[in-house]
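Key idea: predict the complex, not the pieces.
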Amino acid sequence: MAQKRVLMKGNEVIAEAAIRAGCRNYFGYPITPQTEVMHYMAKKMVQVGGNFVQAESEVAAINMVYGAAAAGFRVMTSSSSPGISLKQEGISYIAGAELPAVVVNIVRAGPGLGGIQPAQGDYFQATKGGGHGDYRNIVIAPASVQELYELVVEAFNLADKYRMTCMIVGDGTLGQMMEPVAFRDEEPVETIAKPWAACGRKGDSFHHTVTSIYIDPDVLEKKNLELQDKYKIVEANEVRYEAINMEDAEIVITAFSTCSRISRNVIRQAAELGIKVGMIRPITLWPFPYKAISEAADMPSVKAFLDVELNAGQMIEDVRLGVNGKKPVYFHGRLGGNLPMQKEILDKIVAIHEGKITEGGNF
Amino acid sequence: MAKGKLTFNENLCKGCGLCVAACPKKILELDKTRLNAKGYHPATCVNPDECIGCAFCATQCPDVVITVERF
Amino acid sequence: MAVVFEPTKGLTDKPFHYCPGCCHGIIHRLVAETLVDNDALETAVGVASVGCTYNSYEYIACDMVQAAHGRAPAVATGIKRNLKDSFVFTYQGDGDLASIGTAEIVHAAARSENITVIFVNNAVYGMTSGQMAPTTLVGQVTTTSPWGRDPSYQGYPINVSEFLSNLAGAAYVERVCVTDYKNIQNAKKAIQKAFNVQKNKLGFSLVEVLSTCPTNWGKEPLAAMDWLKENMEKQYPLGCYKGADITFDADGKYVSGAIPATANNCVNVGEVKK
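Result:
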């Protein structure tokens, strides 16, 4: 049976996907450009018998997430960059206490209050920690509304499986975009036992404690090493990316989410000019697809990489680690909430092809 | 008058003296001749026959040191 | 012969790390006894905060969650909204609740979250070595008000029970102390009443317990108790600030008294698979 496709806004799909994934807890605070997630949840959560609380702050919202997750329930919050900065306290505690949670960041331009237009300036914050201490979040960057739906459902499974925060990173473009979505009749929801949950002893001979404090340095080091072991398993098993037109590519674009959509068209336009352009689109920003980038750098056909981002060059640091000096890495970025035109990227590709620009960026 | 019997989980005692002050019969003291495992002078009952089992001492104790029986 | 007082099963075997004469041990015990008295040890979930009581999750024998500084009411909200029939409480100090956590406590009360807050006020930051707290008395010397708290420079103390009781969402707010047998019995009654308020889904309840900090006050435990009575009780008068007329029958069932209209704001969203 052909699946019915419905036209929906990205932000609303995030909320619908969460509910379909069995999430019955949403705690949030209003911020542009993600408010539709909250509006949808405010209506729907009540209808499906779940919890919706408009918290007094982002800080309170993430701590309500911490509480619901500690008690063993699927839970989500969503926000945008300045709000995510406030949530970092809770995200660090969630990492320390090893709780499953889904956090959505519909990124806007910064720093500070910045602007409300799309940006990718939170790449560092999302992938390199954000809060204090040695921890990781699984960071997922969907590029379409359909993918947003599927990956939000998956995010809940990954969060439960690894007991960590799974962060969905989009931007205002993706959040506000309307595209057709085909919903599955039944979601691949994995119900994972949570024997650690603090929801009452219920006959257990011990009490369950959820905590992130370990005063003894030896105990804390051991706890940290366990976390690092877990992160290694995630790195080994959960890397996701899309390789586009990579057979005999000469120039490889690296771009995620919105930038990958713009770059996809550039590949076709470059081909018309006789330049073979491929693209590696990281879907997981952490764990990052270093191996795919490294293997591309080893391809004899590949002459150079062009990293395209809505920031001053953040993911490019991971691209360079993957390339490891084997090929030049060029950069094209836009700031302040602006998107690159296809022609800007195409011009850069032509210049690289003709050897007319030096390595590095447009800043 | 009811009679009481006190049992001290002595190694939990921190020698704060709150029980000494709480006792209406004034029969508790910190034993200055001894140190417990924590290094404090533990509370002790110097005149057990006078104890009335009121449990004022145990109620006031912040470290749940004292068990009280009454007969 | 009958045992009239013995260690409660509501506490674990772990010895308290608190300083000699600190009231936290007494207050922990009252909470733990209340859980046992109400047969709630198997279902209750407590939230520990930051400060001297960071470790209370190891002492109280029900399920416990350790929260970030000041955030316990938000964490408790996340728990209680899912476990509406379980007793959910926070245990917070004055730095935690009345300084860094003011937003969380005010809004939990305003929403009339059906949780119970045990608020321990000793007028000083204990864990970090005696800094001025939002509850520090005017003139009180601390490590960060070395010449005494000067209102023209450091402002005035916050009377938490008084201001929270003004919120429509607060069902029951009472201030007690544990300086002597009678007051300890009153404190226990207040905690039991808060338990009943929550059990009957009447909304937000808070018991403020005045406490000593002999170490950071620089006083012997007994002298600290006297200082509390002479000074703290003037700034923080004991008594019931909200819900004094709420009554329960012998089984703890609500009988009468003014309550917030909010009542039950939580739903059960199913069981956690263990």
